[in-house]
Amino acid sequence: CLVGGVDDGSLSRQRRNGGGWQIPDYRSMFDELTSGRVPPVVPLYGPVPTNFDPGLGPAGQQLITVCSVAPTTDVELDHSSQRFIDEMMRAVAAVVPGLEDHMLWCDTLDVQFIERWIGKSGGAAVTSGQTPDQVGRYRPPQRTPIRGLYLCGDGAGARGVGTELATQSGSSCADLIVNERHYGMV
């Protein structure tokens, strides 16, 4: 899996050299996105499906699927959507040196296409949008203050993103309920 982010040089050297990312960094990135601007750091998520199933590509070759956070279609951009794609491709090339010299083909999709393709207003690829204040230790817990009310899905408990998060959340929530019923806590 390819996960990374490449900055445009505006981040401090200290932060890039082991200072780590802090919640304000993510807030700043999301502020840029919700204002229709490309952020200084383009976040990437890129599974390599051929690592799991080599049959998905020709022998000796890799298939990389890369995506990034981008403004939804209800946000007015301060430039074309192609700029987001170009910056994402620049970031991928920086994370995978030599990629451009070995790439056989590349297909790109913008948020407008995603909106039409999956039929979701706004084009958000993730069902429930989350802010930096709603992830990691800030994600809502599965047990609520209301006795017998639990939360699960891609926005509660667990770790990760998307389908993996929703699945893990559902499994751990079911375990929580079964254990609490077994011990008479519900």
Can you describe this structure?
The protein is mainly alpha-helical. It has 2 domains: 125 residues, no CATH class; 61 residues, no CATH class. The protein has a 3-stranded antiparallel β-sheet, with helices on one face. The N terminus is likely disordered.
Show the helix and strand layout.
Blueprint: E1 2-7, H1 13-19, H2 23-34, E2 41-46, E3 67-68, H3 81-95, H4 99-102, H5 111-118, H6 162-182
Antiparallel strand pairs: 1-2, 2-3
Structure summary:
The protein has 186 residues and is mainly alpha-helical. It has six helices and three strands, in the order βααββαααα.
Radius of gyration: 19 Å
Extract low-pLDDT stretches.
1-8, 10-17
Which structural class is indicated by helix and strand composition?
A: mainly alpha
The helix count comes to 6
Order of helices and strands: EHHEEHHHH
Q: Determine the mean pLDDT.
A: 80
Work out the number of β strands. Answer: 3
The shape, in one word, is globular
* Biggest β-sheet strands, sense, barrel: 3 strands, antiparallel
How much strand?
Answer: 5-15%
Helix content: 25-40%
Instruction: State the domain count.
Output: 2
